[in-house]
Write a structure and sequence with these properties.
Helix content: 25-40%
Strand content: 15-25%
Oligomer: single chain
Distance between the termini: 21 Å
Number of domains: 1
Order of helices and strands: EEEH
Amino acid sequence: MVGQFTAVYMKHGKWYIGYVEEIPGVNTQGRTLAATKRNLKEALELVLEANRSIAHRSHGKHAIEEPISIAVG
């Protein structure tokens, strides 16, 4: 699955902070912009994986799952 999200980066003192605009809780920091970008990708992967796992436990085996796409302007 490939999804596209909006990453926001800001320098705060000697550190960079980053977060994903569309998904609360996906945020990180790093000493460099490159490190912050790597950390943010990992944070996004972990949050999406955790959310899927929680959802699968909640709805059980008999739910219908399918991809959904939207165009956001």
